[in-house]
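Q: Is it fine to ask for two folds in a single conversation?
A: Yes, each is treated on its own. Send the first.
Q: Here.
A: Result:
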Amino acid sequence: MPGRFWLFKSEPEPRIVKGVDVSYGIDKLQADGEADWDGVRNYQARNNMMAMSKGDMALYYHSNTKVPGVVGTCEVVRESYPDETAFDPEDPHFDPKSSEDKPRWFKVDIAYRSRTPRKVSLAELKADPALQQMQLFTRARLSVCELTEEEYNHVLSLAETPEPEAIAAAHPKPRAPKGEPKSAAAAAAAAATGPAASAASAARSAATSSASKPRLSKQASAKRGSAAAARTTKSRAAGFAAFAAAERPAVEAALGQGANARSVSKELAARWEALSDAERAKLS
């Protein structure tokens, strides 16, 4: 029977530090079977590992990903011993203050035990009243957290039930892979396009290629759009200046009769907006 319970944070997505990929998701742990949990450089997390006993159980948690959360379980199979990566200057976790004679950092060995039926997301964990005191929240920066037996079992029980709809709906939507339709309508259109339609489309493209305009890059398209917008703005400004000049006698007369300058300005702008495009074009 396990004595204590823990949570190991891991990164499932590649992250390169000093030329080394430091990610280690549950796929890798399952493939390897066992792993030494090296590279921990936080004293509280280190102390947690030094307090572990063989047979302790832990939740396996994916962090630094779009939807972080618990994805499986693992077991401590070797108690703490010096982390030799701290002695290696070429290692991303090198610490010059740690030596073989006086090691500062320690690690444990863990073994893959299971995947949860579904990921229990961080959002779901935070929303659960029974988990508010998890060290995952009270000491958020820890990569190795201690759990109570109740917290450990409760998280696993959540994984056996459907995710709340409100939480699921709030997760970031995955992007469609390159080359795949990005919508159901596009997917249906792609599915309906057979070889004959593709050939006909290719023939039409070949027949009109000499007359078609070259496609613009995103940068060129944006530049062209910006230039057009600038021309439009300049034209409107010139038109309004001409309109204001024509209205100047009326404006001066109104001001001379004690009219409020802001009110006169608003009225002038309203008359300008009331003009048709053709009338404005004549003034530009």
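Q: Second one now.
A: Result:
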Amino acid sequence: MSVNRRSVLKGMALTSIAGVTATGLGSALAAGPASTVTAQPLLALVNEGPAESLFLYGAMAARDSQSQLQVQRVDRDPGFMLEFERELRRGVPMNVIGLLDNASAALVLDMARSGGARIQWLGQHSADAGFSRHHLLRTEIAEGCAQQLSHQLQACGAGFSVTEERQNSAVTSRQLVASSNQTSHSAQWASSIGYLLASLGAPTTLNIPASPNTSLPVTGSFVSFSIKA
């Protein structure tokens, strides 16, 4: 893929994510039939970075030996996006989760909607030193995930704000805020999101694992998602 091609795609993605934010996330969810749990391998889309590494740590903890987790680092393979779009348009069944920067995530979400896939979870996350903010839009299959995330962050002493909305629901959004008392766990949100998305729709008795300590700052803006095609 040429530099010009990448620039065009990135520009399209930035426009798309701005639209998602302006519409309260609602238009980003594609309509579709309710999904069921299958034995399909799970594909995790990430970029390089400490937040993405912690996301994978949580996702791998949620998968048992019978469930394969495939990892695609999007920033290492620019051609992956074109192949991903072709597979979606062909109707290839897939389960996809991810934690990406705003531009990359917008492109993936646009492709998923165009390909008729169902977006089961969409989260916007921003993190700085000692505090993280999360705006979550979910479908029925992700019932209870926002509460689990809030309880985990509160239990480990992380400072956070979680706002949850449900697709096509008249119920007002719910929000929980807590101040930080242990800055060493401020990055727990990334591994918790990875765990929750990797276990969507599957019963589990495991506790969300505590994130490993990292010397690199986990700051910036990210988008998490779960896609069923």
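Q: Anything structural to flag on that second result?
A: Two points. Residues 3-21+38-122+186-228 form one domain. The first helix runs from residue 3 to 22.
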